[in-house]
Amino acid sequence: MRPHHRITHPRALHPGAWWLWALGLAAAASRTANPVPLVLIIAVTWFVVSARRGDTPWAASYALFFRLALIVIAIHLVFQTLLSGSTQGTTVLFSLPEIPVPDSFGIQLGGDVTLEALLTAFYVALQLAAIFCCIGAANALGSARQLLRYVPAALYEIGIACVIALTFAPQLAGDARRVRDAARLRGGNRGRVRRLGRLAMPMLEGALERSVELAAAMDSRGYGRTTTTDPRARRTTSLLVVAGSLGTCVGVYGLLAGTADSWLGLPMLLVGAALGVLGIASGGRRTGRTRYRPDPWALPELLVVASGLAAAALMFWQVRVDPGVLVLSSSTAVPPVPLLACLGIALALLPAVLAPPLPIAPARVAR
Amino acid sequence: MSDVAVVRVHAAAAAALALSSLVTLVAFGWPFVFQPGNGFEGTSHSTDAPWFFVLILPLLAAIVLAELNAGGIDAKAIALLGMLSSVGGAMRALSPGVAGLEPSFAIIMLGGRVFGRGFGFVLGCLTLFVGALITGGVGPWLPFQMMAAGWVGFASGSLPRMTGRLEVLALAVLGFFLGLFYGLLMNLWFWPFGVYGDGLSFVPGADALANATNYGRYYLTTSVVWDLGRGVFTFLLILVAGRPLLRALRRVSRRAAFGVPVRFEP
Amino acid sequence: MIVFDRVSVTYAGAASPVLSEVDLTIPEGEMCLVMGRTGSGKSTLLRAINGLVPHFSGGTLRGTVQVDGRKTSSHRPRDLADVVGFVGQDPLSGFVTDNVEDELAYAMESLGVAPSVMRKRVEETLDLLGLADLRGRPLAQLSGGQQQRVAIGSVLTTHPRVLVLDEPTSALDPLAAEDVLATMQRLVHDLGLTVVLAEHRLERVVQFVDRIVHVPGDGSPVVDGPPATMLAGTPIAPPVVELGRAAGWDPLPLTVRDARRRSVALRAELAVVPPPEHGPRVSGEVLATTRNLVLGYPRRPVLEDVSLTVSAGEVVALMGRNGAGKSTLLRGLVGLHRPQSGTIDSPRAGLVPQVPADLLYAASVRSECEMADRDADAPAGTTRALMDRLTDGIDPDTHPRDLSEGQKLTLALAIVLAQRPALLLLDEPTRGLDYTAKQNLVAILHDLVADGHGVVLATHDVELVAEVATRVVVLADGEVVADGAAREVVVSSPAFAPQVAKIMAPQPWLTARDVASALAASRR
């Protein structure tokens, strides 16, 4: 067995695997309003991120998203408190002074705040929070930036533009410091706007001048050389792409308008999406580029993805066999435990051991 | 019209762009247009529509970008896109503005203005994408933001040809409305997911008008202040910085010799 | 290998051609230096080799350029990527990816080289350029010399037959420049590449090159020939050659070693002549003092215990390796850094930063000057008058960033001088300057000192120090390790001795001009 199939061989997991795992969990979260599986999902993301996070700069994004999730919950609760019409529930927790608003406006400011209303708002927010945590985990574990190496070939050039942008962005900070010092040397700054302009203009001009030099360097190094322009293949691609977007369009209409013809809805959407994917794939064939040292896609990747998909699949199965346990009969009821769904979410915990550990960075020789 | 068309929008790309924009618009505005739920009869979930859009929009954004890309973007345009979206994205991450968007908006708009609407669209998409990557904030909202910002660049590239102060003024006014509108749309994508209290939330199955009123109230109570702020800031920013920025962009357009004929004589 | 056949280049919208009727043949395996002032058309010549002119730049190319049998009229730059490797001035601005290994692989990915071959070539190139230790490092963290080596490596991976370098060292400090040029030389010897490069620092390269192409830029024809004959006639020459000319040696020496062996008679002749003083021993009013200065960041002091006095009429050169604290000291003197302990007293100092373009915001030189007047509260027209005094021939309607490096420096200098500083600080002022611009700078500095200014330069450029400095302060690790008259410090130091001092040692001569005037006086 080659070492990268072993789950103990230290290496970085393919970022795509982490994203698929997280998307699976997020899909599971989107199917339930029951706080039990939602809290479980948040716990799972927390645990896996703590177990397999590197010391990369993007690893901090989980904390960022977690904070965002807390903010979402807080906003929901505050809104519900201030604006609740308290039409739901009878358990009054406390009362706020009511501010008279014309009836025609249709909302009520202040008044009684009920437990039921607050709990409903909390559960809805919890679902969003769970999804935020999934995305945060994806961002922290598999850098979206690394994923750029795997953009479909049809988007290669755009991907290169992103790579350039990300390479250049950190240097902007250094440029800014230099330019700011220069501005102070020149003195005579009056007003914030002017100061900002003096900071922005030299930086922007520098960036623009650099883009011309960069383009010359890219051109001399063979950028776009292997791109063939076969008009027939181009036409096929365009046809696929346009048909795909048209199909999606019709599918969306069918879904939303709820016409009698069932083929107009989901099936059409799927066909459209498939055509679009085909179009992107066929557009990618025009390039003859090769890839340097791609990250391996081996057994650990498959296992991680499978665990994420298992969470989604078991959740959907639960929806099919017993949807009742995924929603609450009333907001104050004790939440039931959906066994199948929870089993799936527990499976999604496995990447904490299935994903290979990260290698320890070799000690850098001091310069 | 802009000075040069650095990224050509050929027929197929235009069609893909139009159709995807339509879907995106629907993705933003479905609560008012349709009565959701009908298509999902037989399942117990009537709020599935937004999830579908979250899944389908990245694909559509990819399709449009791929199709614009297939028209052949040369090294100069790619390098320029990279640099400008880097500056725009970094400003988005750093700038202290109302929502941190105004400076990036100005760059997207002026870039679209100088280098054409195709370029403007791609620049808008990339700036938001790069901004999200820098901050580690890639999420389901990203495709919505990318498409909307793409429209911003596209619209600026489509303004009729003007010169001098008039051009800056027109761009500034456009910036005001786009800044306002962007907020209106961006709230919409997540609004149906949340519960904010009676009379403010999306009500599945309720008629379009009721939902529109609810959204209107939600918008007025929560985000109109921010969006007005964003609009006004964008307006002022373009008014003040528009001329030097346009000059800088046009200068690089000359340096890069976009559209300058290449001749060989024996 | 490279053939120019009656080549003329006219850019779109230009009235006259940049290059006209160039005939040039560069055989395989040669290292060829292209010489000429900034703006003379040498960049155009270099860029015509891989077809960037006119495919990338636009414009009209008359005649034919052929590289390895391929005509640029039918091959775009990208089609020549496996024949010609092109390296520009600033390595950082040519990078597409963000780490060393990916950058080396980028060109091969574009050409569709098979993954196994790619892997092998990347490893070979890492070894060839001594980059193996840096393989995974982010490019932005490398030093300038390392970056330029990566840039060279990134075009070598396609196995080109020709390497074209447009001023590969002008954005680098001299130590980095040396690093890059040494690498270049090794490549020529090991790989048999044909190399064409433009370079201002002639003293570093003339000894390696087989041929010099001179692009005069005034309409007269482009000429080429072996280095010794070419340098006899050109106005631009390294100090060794100038000394050779002054002493009347024929053929001219190209290396210090060469000149040293020939200089026995010259040294004997000058043994009794005292070399001229560089600047006053006693100086005027004290302009800046630092006492027990500690500067830097919390828990990371850059300067430790620096006590220094600078007086009017002095030109103090700060020398030392990168990171020794030269720039930090200048920034402290001008008030950009607050001392952590100790004192700085330099009320009337003005600093020209390392990248003069950072000072420039306006859309034309004219409005830049007007803005500078307002910034400095100086009467209208001050900056403009200063600029005109420092140099002539800057068109006030040009965009400041379109000026040559030398002109940008002059404009920045004028802007700083408009604030009437008594002490002028310059950070690495000769970076990117061509020979003429450097001579101009030397003249300006002499004038300023004569006016009663004091000057402090942070520089690596030993030839500049030899020309202008009256005093040299060597910093190492944040401390002053040497402080004394230029001649005393510089002549005895292996790292900071100018070429003439090395040739004439142990006699303390610093410049070819000193030797020439002494000779003229003694032979009269």
From TrEMBL, chain A:
Keywords: Membrane, Transmembrane, Transmembrane helix. The keyword Lipid biosynthesis does not apply. It is a multi-pass membrane protein. Its main location: membrane. It comes from the Bacteria. The chain crosses the membrane at residues 12-29, 35-52, 64-83, 121-141, 239-257, 263-284, 296-317, 337-358. The keyword Transmembrane helix applies. GO terms for cellular component: plasma membrane. InterPro entries: ABC/ECF_trnsptr_transmembrane (IPR003339). It is found in: Membrane. PANTHER family: COBALT TRANSPORT PROTEIN (PTHR33514:SF15), PROTEIN ABCI12, CHLOROPLASTIC (PTHR33514). This is Energy-coupling factor transporter transmembrane protein EcfT. It comes from Nocardioides donggukensis.
Automatic annotation (TrEMBL), chain B:
Keywords: Membrane, Transmembrane, Transmembrane helix. The chain crosses the membrane at residues 12-30, 50-70, 77-94, 114-138, 168-191, 228-246. GO terms for molecular function: transmembrane transporter activity. It comes from the Bacteria. The keyword Transmembrane helix applies. Pfam families: ECF_trnsprt. InterPro entries: ECF_substrate-spec_UCP037395, ECF_trnsprt_substrate-spec. The keyword Transmembrane helix applies. This is ECF transporter S component. It comes from Nocardioides donggukensis. The lineage of its organism: Bacteria, Bacillati, Actinomycetota, Actinomycetes, Propionibacteriales.
UniProtKB/TrEMBL annotation, chain C:
It is found in: Cell membrane. GO terms for molecular function: ATP binding; ATP hydrolysis activity; ATPase-coupled transmembrane transporter activity. The keyword Isomerase does not apply. Residues 4-243, 288-502 form the ABC transporter domain. Pfam families: ABC_tran. It comes from the Bacteria. The keyword Transmembrane helix does not apply. PROSITE patterns: ABC_TRANSPORTER_1, ABC_TRANSPORTER_2. Keywords: ATP-binding, Cell membrane, Membrane, Nucleotide-binding, Repeat, Translocase, Transport. Belongs to the ABC transporter superfamily. It is a peripheral membrane protein. This is ATP-binding cassette domain-containing protein. Coiled coil: none annotated. It comes from Nocardioides donggukensis. The lineage of its organism: Bacteria, Bacillati, Actinomycetota, Actinomycetes, Propionibacteriales. Probably part of an ABC transporter complex. Responsible for energy coupling to the transport system. GO terms for cellular component: ATP-binding cassette (ABC) transporter complex.
